[in-house]
């Protein structure tokens, strides 16, 4: 089994923040969860082709980069309680990885990456705008200039450079009531989203 620790450092960045906002666990954890299901099924049924795999040793000729099933099965059977469901294990492990990862702006507001975020009831266009402000990934003027798609990087408010940080914290035209409001999504933030002319 591939150790989950290899994702601890980039957990807050791994395809995230977009994946985090969508409630999708890192691919490594999802693979481990599927493996756990297979391990338990194989252990339960003696007719299963992998029933005895956990007690057999791995082939000595395998590459170091490979993670054989029987080794993963042994580790899972020893470390994961039988009464803990796969989904509960996945949620707990993902939350543990998230808490152990280095700090990021989005981490200050999302304590449980699998717990969902507010705003999923918004119209698609508003949901997209909200998440671009949350993640800092979008068609900001500074980004468009960097990509060669625009000649200017200035914000409509007069700031020389339009970035997510500028809009979220100091823009005279588009700044939200508070950065926390991006995640709490109170009435003021909802009104701003519905009334804004910001297009990113």
Which features does this protein show?
mainly alpha; single chain; about 200 residues
Write structural notes for this entry.
The chain is mainly alpha-helical and about 200 residues long. Helix content is about 45%, strand content about 0%. It is built from nine helices and no strands. The chain has helices at about 20, 25-45, 70-80, 85-100, 125-135, 140-145, 165-170, 180-185, 185-195. Helix 2 (about 25-45) crosses helix 3 and helix 2 (about 25-45) packs antiparallel against helix 4 (about 85-100). It is elongated. The protein starts with 17 loop residues before the first helix and ends in a 5-residue tail after the last helix.
Mind summarizing the main beta sheet?
none
Q: Helical stretch count?
A: 9
Elements, N to C (H/E) = HHHHHHHHH
The N- to C-terminal Cα distance equals 41 Å
Mean pLDDT: 81
Number of strands: 0
Amount of helix: 40-55%
Oligomer: single chain
Q: Given the helix and strand composition, which structural class is it?
A: mainly alpha
Question: How would you sum up the global shape?
Answer: elongated
- As a whole number of angstroms, the C-alpha radius of gyration is 22 Å
What is the fold's blueprint, element by element?
Blueprint: H1 18-22, H2 27-44, H3 69-79, H4 86-100, H5 124-135, H6 141-146, H7 164-169, H8 181-184, H9 187-195
Helix pairs in contact: 2-3, 2-4
């Amino acid at each position: 089994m591939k150790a989950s620790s290899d994702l601890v450092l980039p957990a807050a960045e791994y395809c995230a923040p977009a994946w985090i906002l969508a409630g999708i666990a890192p691919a490594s954890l999802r693979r481990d969860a599927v493996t756990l299901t297979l391990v338990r099924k194989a252990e339960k049924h003696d007719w299963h082709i992998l029933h005895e795999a956990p007690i057999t040793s791995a082939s000595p000729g395998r590459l170091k980069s490979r993670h054989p099933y029987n080794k993963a099965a042994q580790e899972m059977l020893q470390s994961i309680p039988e009464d803990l469901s796969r989904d509960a294990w996945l949620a707990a492990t993902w939350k543990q990885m998230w808490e152990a990862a280095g700090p990021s702006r989005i981490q200050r507001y999302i304590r449980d990456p699998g717990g969902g975020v507010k705003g999923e009831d918004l119209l698609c266009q508003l949901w997209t705008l909200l998440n671009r402000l949350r993640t800092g990934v979008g068609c900001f003027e500074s980004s468009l200039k960097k990509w060669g798609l625009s000649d200017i990087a200035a914000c409509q408010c007069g700031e020389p450079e339009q970035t997510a940080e500028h809009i979220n914290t100091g823009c005279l035209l588009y700044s939200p009531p508070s950065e926390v409001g991006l995640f709490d999504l109170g009435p003021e933030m909802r009104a701003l989203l519905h009334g804004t002319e910001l297009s990113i």
